[in-house]
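Q: Sequence in, structure out?
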Amino acid sequence: MIRAVAVLLLFAHGVAHFAIWVPRVDPGRPPPFRPDRSGLLSAAGMPEGAVRRAAVTLAVVTGLLNWLAAVWLVTGSDRWAGAAVGAAVCGLVLKAIWFNPWLSLGVVLDLGLLLAVAQRWPAALW
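A: Exactly. Output:
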């Protein structure tokens, strides 16, 4: 049961990255934050289009790593933990560079995932 919940959480977190970062911004319904705006990258002079491409690329990598971790967890492979850590680190980098308070839950999820893997918790996954 615990394994199934962990798989669903990893898969859903991957879906969330695609749903939040990949769609084009609808001017009639602007999102609470914009992937084409990063205070850090904009201050460095990076054009909006490049900022958006970087955000989408990092979000896709993060989502795919979450899905890979879920698949490896289903198959019983020990490699799931490495993919999960990679996803969490990519997610934290993404949320740090494009910080917005709306992304705070994602930060908590990524930090929780890192902590769970570091503590080998829950034991049923190991």
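The chain has one domain: 2-125.
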